[in-house]
Amino acid sequence: MSKQIPSMDQWMKEAKAAPDADKVGMYLVHNGVVRETPKALVRQGEDTGKSVTGMYFAYDADKVSAAIEATRAREGIYHVRVWLNEGELQVGDDIMYVLIGGDIRPRVIDALQSLVGTIKNECVVEKERY
Fold first, then answer.
1. Vertex 36, ends 35 and 42: CA angle to 5°?
2. Are residues 29 and 79 in contact, defined by beta-carbon separation less than 8 angstroms?
3. pTM over 0.85
4. Comparing 40 with 111, which gets the higher pLDDT?
């Protein structure tokens, strides 16, 4: 793994000290991890009989920044922070952390789901290794 894993305790401390923290009623964290089960099996039910041993992961920083800014513009969202790993990763390694803070649960859940989906579908390259 090529990047230092962030401290969620530190991220939360910083989020709660931010100027809009008094408007936040909920924080959600997403931690994506390299799994042994291939994406094709989990998503489409296609069993190749192979197990993932690692993955190559890269991202387009400009696209990620645009996705973060779009999330910050959502109603009721006051805090957005993203960390993405890169390079050759092994099973169990962290792929990403995403922290979203907002006023009410439905908005925070929707924002987290939307941002993670955008990152995974539009901003990254993942190549599983077997």
1. 75
2. no
3. yes
4. 111
